[in-house]
Give the backbone structure.
Amino acid sequence: MAKDKHVSETPVTQFLKKHRVAYSEHPYDYIDHGGATEAAKQLGLDLHQVAKTLIMEDEDAQPLMVIMHGDREVSTKNLARQIAAKKVSPCAPDTAQKHSGYLVGGTSPFATRKKMPVWIEAALLDYPLIYVNGGRRGYLIGVDPSALASLLDAKAVNVALTKG
């Protein structure tokens, strides 16, 4: 667990330590609406390997989480088809915060307030390490993507769209 700069504990780091999952810490200067692009730029990371955590909901307003490449968007139509839902749409920011327990811009797939189904873009599982939010704005962690499958029961989907 590399530490260049000490970062205080988050529910995410506590969760990963409890489950004995190795991770690296990557703090950066948070910029509103900078997203994964800004984080990757500041940290010198491949944007395709930086994953954003998106809270969405189905037609019954049941929450679900999608983990997607930083340089891609989610095809909600393809996602709905692949998970046998009628419709999937992004949650409003305040609703996403209620479900996850995190501020938008700091949403991590780990240690969420509500347990919800997790879907991960299949190609992210091919990397030995991906970078996800560590539970606060301006803080990524590097983690083996297999931890998402084992700890969160994340299921692979192919729903990436090139940003246009």
